[in-house]
Each structure stands twice: as C-alpha cells, then as structure tokens.
Amino acid sequence: MLEAARLGEAARGRTAPNPNVGCLIVKDGEVVGRGATAPGGRPHAEAVALADAGTKAKGATLYTTLEPCAHASERGPTCSTLIPEAGIARVVIGIKDPDPRTAGQGIKLLKAAGIEVKTGVGREFSKDSMSGYLSRVERGRPRITLKLALSIDGKIALPSGESKWITGEDARAHVHLERASSDMILVGRGTYMADQPKLDVRLPGLEQWSPRRALLTRGEAVKGWEILSSPKDVYRLHDVNDLLVEGGSATATAFLAADLVDRILIYRAPILVGEGKSSVGYIGLDAIADAHGRWKAGDGSRLGIDRLEVYERVRN
C-alpha cells in the first residue's frame, strides 16, 4: 500500500478534479501490474494497472489507495466492473471514497461479484497521498500549501524589497517540484506587479506540468491569470485539488488570517537580513496561548545549503 500511495503521489497535480489514486496488482508474491490515475483523470489507476497486468490479473490481489469507482461515466467504465471482469480474487483498499456517487457502492459491487475485500490497510499513506482531493470533497475547497522562502530571522526581503535570491538552487528546484504537483499556483497583485512572475515549472522533463496561475486581487483581470478577489474564493475552485500560494507577505497574511492554510513549506536560508520585510503580518492572534497547538512539525530535509521545514495545520 505504501508503494501504491507513492504511485498516486507522483500523479498529484495532474488528475483534478479526479483523485490521484495509486494501484498495484500482486500475484504469487510478485508485482504484475502498476498504475496511477492518468493526466486529466482518465483512465483510472485500477484500469491502468489491470492493463499492465493483462492475463496475470486473474486470481491476483489488487491494492488501491481509494475505493474503486461505482458511478457511470461517459469517459470510461467503472473500476468496480473492470476488476471482476479481469478475474481479480481480492481487493485491498486504503480508504473509502467520500464522493457520494461511490461512497461504499464500489465495495458492495465487488463483494457481490464474489471478491474478497479488505479496507483500511495503509489508511494514513492513502489519505496523505490524496489530501488535496479529500480536502476538496470534504471541505469544499483545495488543500492549500503556503510556500515561504525566509532568512534565519524570518525575513522575505530587504527593506528595498530585494529578495533574489534568499535561497539556493536546490531549494528553488524543490519549489518547482511543488509547482509540478499543484493544480494551481497563486500570488498577490503586489508580487505580480513587482516581479511579473511566470510561475512555471522549469525542471527538465516537467515543463508541461506548469500549473494554472491565479492572482489575488480586487483589481482588473489579467490575461492568462484566474482572479480570486478574496481567499474565500477558493470555495469556488471545484476543479482544483491542490493550490500552492507563493506570496508575498500580504497574500500569506490574508490566507493565514482566514485559516485556510493546511500546510506551510518554509525554505530557510542560512543568512541574516536584520531590518527587512517580514513574512507575515497580523493574523488575528492576541495571545501567545492562542498560537499553540495549531501547527505540528512534519518531516523536514536538507536542500543544499538550505533547510526545508514542513508544518501541518492541526484540525479536528
């Protein structure tokens, strides 16, 4: 299931509004089929893995991070129909699909076809890999990641506004990987006017996965950019699973004050700026006690000369 989740994670940012599912087919201790949801959402991961396995699928066990779909679509057959037709003997599922069009119906169809079904295996792996899809279905909005490039003392720029480059090449390359794993990337009007950013993916082989661009502004529309007039407009992004917010300070503050940030990526450079521009302004907290318990530290890493710090919002 961990391997299935990794396959699904690799498809993040390319399948919305469909989930980025990962699937493995195993027979006699050997992996005979691998699949992930294809770009654009079809074919589904199970269909890809079944095609990869071919006749070896008969009598095998299929591992999938999400319950196989049960609702009809003009874009292809349901996976809960394809699986019995291929002769799969057992299905192991990470999590049930919260989409009301499936929501347990896929499991019922598999069991009715005589297939052994087990759910909840690798639940956390599966949830983590599809956190954007789950956020959109359950919360009505994308999972929102805030990216910040900071000095040791938490500054994003000199007093003049100069910020190129706070971090090194390895950290910037990692940001491009995050962009390639996002459906949409957003900046504020100030960043747009100051930097005219392209916000594309410039890693060899991944250029085609540049996300859609959005601008947080109450001003005029800009060609090639989608407009959000306030952070709350994320609730109308029905075809976006993962949204990456890249700044600047006013935009970061607006999303944090609205409590819409689910994950923070801090790229920390080993430099001191002193007087300069802070990363975040007032976000509505009036006591230190209110700040505790809201965030938990995730796995960080070394990126060349810089450090990546990951923080997840704690939500009930």
UniProtKB/TrEMBL annotation:
It comes from the Bacteria. InterPro entries: CMP_dCMP_dom (IPR002125), Cytidine_deaminase-like (IPR016193), DHFR-like_dom_sf (IPR024072), Eubact_RibD (IPR004794), RibDG_C (IPR002734), Riboflavin_Biosynth_HTPR (IPR050765). Residues 1-118 form the CMP/dCMP-type deaminase domain. Pathway: Cofactor biosynthesis; riboflavin biosynthesis; 5-amino-6-(D-ribitylamino)uracil from GTP: step 2/4; Cofactor biosynthesis; riboflavin biosynthesis; 5-amino-6-(D-ribitylamino)uracil from GTP: step 3/4. Its EC number is 1.1.1.193, 3.5.4.26. Converts 2,5-diamino-6-(ribosylamino)-4(3h)-pyrimidinone 5'-phosphate into 5-amino-6-(ribosylamino)-2,4(1h,3h)-pyrimidinedione 5'-phosphate. This is Riboflavin biosynthesis protein RibD. The lineage of its organism: Bacteria, Pseudomonadati, Pseudomonadota, Alphaproteobacteria, Sphingomonadales. The gene is ribD.
